[in-house]
Design a protein that fits this description.
Layout (H helix, E strand, L loop, with lengths): L1 E7 L7 E8 L4 E7 L8 E6 L2 E2 L4 E3 L4 E7 L7 E9 L2 E9 L1 H18 L4 E4 L3 E7 L9 E6 L2 E2 L6 E6 L2 E7 L7 E9 L2 E9 L1 H23 L2 E4 L4 E5 L4 E8 L5 E6 L2 E2 L6 E6 L2 E6 L8 E9 L2 E12 L6 H4 L2
Parallel strand pairs: 19-26
Antiparallel strand pairs: 1-7, 2-3, 4-5, 4-8, 6-7, 8-9, 10-11, 11-15, 12-13, 12-16, 14-15, 16-17, 18-20, 20-24, 21-22, 21-25, 23-24, 25-26
């Protein structure tokens, strides 16, 4: 929700024709001031608490000065000044956005927010069932919300969560049960404006939400437990021949993943110079006395019943007296 202060420069006398209006559709506040004899050199400036605000806009064609405040809050409380000036002098107009004036704007925004609330929607989530309404604007100081289940007031607890954002009011039912079926009502109060929105979480609506909850919960379990290579392998490893190469990565998964290494998409046989060591979640491959034949694209492949993943690294072996490829390219 944006708050607009507008100063219009046009026909009239300096200091005459001051107006302040509120747009009930957008929640904007507009301020107009008519000024005569503007020209190309006329400068328009916005000030807040005597400090210039560079975000202010001025259109010399229409004579409109515009200042937009995103997400109006108490920190925007203060004195605003719009000033026009040129070689003939200057003129200004003041908006005192404190006390009752600021309260009036917040009250109006609360009314707009309450009237903008969309019908309640039901949504299955990984944790349970969510019921929510979208709003154009929400301010916790000037708007109050209350949830009811079967006409009984609900309070946040172990299985019930309620909350708001700037554009949404929501109720989250965790680990839903049959006892959670029934009518839910959201009451939004903003000044004298009170709205009630209701939905019925029963029958097919409950079954559909539960099915989506179970589906997302199962996917979350799979994603949490599937085999992964979580960190450790570089994209490229460069080493001089006859040195020993050690590469370590960290894996995760429940049950513990099966582990294998590939070289150019073919299984690596751990004999002679090749060794693999597993310590908890750390997996290390060691290649002793590397030579040019050891260059290639390597991958550690991990899998369990929930899924699999491959972490890859390219190994480049250079001869004594040569420079690594990446140094040659610099």
């Amino acid at each position: 929700m944006n708050i607009y202060k507008e100063n219009r420069v046009g026909q009239g006398s300096r200091g005459r024709g001051k107006t302040i209006s509120k747009n009930s559709e957008s929640g904007s506040q507009q301020r107009s001031h008519m000024v005569t004899n503007t020209k190309k050199e006329t400068r328009f400036q916005w000030f807040f608490q005597r400090a210039e605000m560079p975000d202010g806009q001025y259109d010399p064609e229409t004579g409109t000065g515009l200042l937009c405040i995103e997400e109006l809050s108490k920190k925007d409380k203060g004195i605003y000044r719009a000033m026009v000036s040129d070689d003939r002098g200057e003129d200004d107009t003041i908006l005192d956005l404190t006390g009752d004036a600021l309260d009036a704007i917040f009250t109006e925004l609360g009314r707009i927010g309450a009237l903008s609330a969309t019908p309640l929607k039901i949504q299955g989530t990984e944790e349970g069932i969510r019921i929510f309404s979208k709003v154009k604007y929400y301010n916790v100081e000037y708007m109050k919300t209350t949830w009811f289940h079967k006409d009984k007031r609900l309070e946040s607890g172990d299985r019930i969560r309620t909350g708001t954002t700037l554009d949404e009011i929501w109720l989250h039912i965790l680990d839903p049960k049959d006892s959670d079926k029934g009518k839910y009502t959201l009451e939004i109060a903003a000044g004298k404006e009170v709205r009630q929105l209701s939905t019925d979480l029963s029958g097919q609506a409950f079954e559909d939400a539960m099915a989506e909850h179970q589906r997302l919960k199962a996917l979350a379990i799979i994603e949490k437990n599937r085999a992964k290579v979580v960190r450790g392998l570089p994209d490229v490893a460069t080493i001089m021949e006859d040195k020993t190469l050690c590469l370590t990565c960290v894996i995760s998964g429940d049950p513990t993943p099966e582990i294998s290494w590939l070289k150019n998409d073919q299984p690596v046989t751990f004999l002679d110079r090749y060794r693999m060591e597993v310590r908890g979640t750390e997996v290390t491959i060691t290649i002793e006395k590397v030579n040019s034949d050891d260059s290639g694209r390597y991958g550690v492949f991990v899998k369990n019943k929930y899924g699999s993943e491959t972490g890859q690294v390219t190994i480049s072996v250079f001869k004594h007296g040569d420079e690594p490829k990446e140094l040659k390219s610099m």
